[in-house]
Amino acid sequence: MSTGTTKLDVVVSDVVPANELVTRFHFRRRDGQLLPTFSGGAHVVVEMRDGERTRLNPYSLMGSPLDTREYTISVRRDDVGRGGSLFMHSNVRPGMEMVISYPVNLFSLDLRARKHLMLAGGIG
Predict the structure, then answer these.
(1) Residue 90: its H or E element
(2) Distance of alpha carbon 86 from alpha carbon 53, whole angstroms
(3) Which one of 40, 59, 91, 101 is most buried, by most CB atoms within 10 A?
(4) Interatomic CA distance for residues 46 and 104, integer angstroms
(5) In the prediction, which pLDDT does 1 show?
(6) What are φ and ψ of residue 85, in 5° steps?
(7) pLDDT digit string (tens) for 44-103?
(8) Cα separation of 54 and 84, whole Å?
(9) What number of CA atoms fall less than 13 Å from residue 47's CA on the CB side?
(10) In what order do the strands lie in the sheet with 43-50?
(11) Is 104 exposed, middle or buried, given 0-12, 13-18 or 19+ CB atoms closer than 10 A?
(12) What's the CA gap between 20 and 26, in Å, rounded?
């Protein structure tokens, strides 16, 4: 996996509300090529240009790592947070061009282990 320093130019292919607080965002490469592969537990850093300010927020990748046509993230809106989730919910629309990092995995599996146990608790 990359260290996350390389960037990908993407376009938002779809925005799908999951409920009143969580929205799914789908990204495809602007050049139409396939996205880099990733492994379970990986995330991308999404660049959000908000006027003079650029926000950098990591979001976990969802879906099958084998499907590299698009990446999907879910973002929970936090009305009292630092502003990244509000930006995503208020400003990001299908067709919008954005920049994301290559996938980074801080939770990669150790293939030497006999079994793995992953516990997750919510979003955000």
Answers:
(1) helix 84-91
(2) 14
(3) 59
(4) 12
(5) 39
(6) -70, -35
(7) 999 999 889 999 999 999 999 889 999 999 999 999 988 899 999 999 999 999 999 999
(8) 10
(9) 19
(10) 53-60, 43-50, 97-101, 7-17, 22-29, 71-76
(11) buried
(12) 18
Residue 14: how many CA atoms within 13 Å on its side-chain side? Answer: 11
Q: How many CA atoms lie within 13 A of 13 on its CB side?
A: 14
What's the pTM? 0.87
pLDDT at 119 over 80: no
Reported as a single tens digit per residue, the pLDDT across 10-57 is 999 999 999 999 999 999 999 999 999 998 889 999 999 988 999 999
* 3-state DSSP percent of the chain in helix, strand and coil, to 5: 5, 40, 55
- 55/1 Cα distance (integer angstroms): 23
Domains and CATH numbers, the chain: 7-101 (2.40.30.10)
Answer for the pair 93, 12: CB distance below 8 angstroms, yes or no.
Answer: yes
